[in-house]
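Q: Sequence in, structure out?
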Amino acid sequence: MRRLGSTRRGRRANRLVAAGVAGAAALAVLTVPGAEARPLGQQEAGQVNGGRAGVGQVDASRAGVERTGHGRGTAHWVVKDTGAPQIRFRGLAAVDRRTAWLAGTGGTVLRTTDGGASWRNVSPPGAAGLEFRDVTAFDARRAVVLAIGEGEASRVYRTDDGGTTWTESFRNTDPRAFYDCLAFFDRRHGLALGDPVDGRFRILSTADGGRSWRVLPAAGMPPALDGEAGFAASGQCLVTSGPKDAWLATGGGSHARVLHSADRGLSWTAADTPVPAADPAKGVFALAFRDRTHGVAVGGDYRPGRPSPGAAAVTADGGRTWRPAVTAPPAYRSGAAWLPHSRAVALAVGPTGTDLTTDGGRSWRTIDTGSYDTVTCTPDLSCWAAGEQGRVARLER
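A: Exactly. Output:
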């Protein structure tokens, strides 16, 4: 008698069962009845400024902890005190529910290995004048961060010892170039997206984990539209899935587009999305793909108070075509993430709230009105968000 999973068919069945159980657990965490939209994780009165220790010690009624007839609490953001209220964190990389990295203004990089109970400042020396907007973490010790800006302000750093030391592995020397975000396929292969130079988006490539970079030939990149660029808002204007597929998001041109590469950035095809554009402040700000076929796009108009109708779209063919969300988030959203092991559940965040979809991006509903710029989820079903005023939170119930 063979042991369960000893055949290829058995192993595949086991994986499917495990994925189904994990997906159901993820859905349960986020869709317990009784959730209401509220500013989850906001500080109580008297805890602002001089009350650093109070950050994250939020009253349960304000944090959305409700009880249902089954005695289960709703999912809610729990704020973690970073001790850096002056920093805006648009770069976020979570390894699991205990380990996460942050990248933000003032050349700031923070790391936690205890679930956000404490944070260590591991910023690269001499980086105080830089704007870190993206970070990729391979584990608690190895990470790559991207600084954005014109000319030499765009740089890449890598650490192999938890941020004790850093190596500057790339510094942009072209005054026309401006890099926005980076993404990795695995621990060795990755890309960084730059705004158009000579009419085409510029792509950096690494094959050694970010220790060295080269500019890829522009021949495989379609021409950019007039005014088209990427948005360095959340580190999610460039995303990957699997060993070779990558997508980049654009705005500012006549159409908001998504470009797809199936060969690690050597060649790209472009597709229009229904997300509003035709303005320097409008377009797709973030992408999230749960596999090489299914993805969501979110964005809108980032200017405060401006309406952003129809600022979400969904694809089921790898980004060749995009359909508008039937019910989009009510305002601009800059970050998005799928829950691992789920075929239908994803989150979108922005300065005015967090939205949830349970049908693969076709409809969204607001579950929180706190301000976050970026969001990510990890294989152990942990989701993190980060944003202005040093705010970082983990989704809990």
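Confidence is low (pLDDT under 50) at residues 1-23, 31-72.
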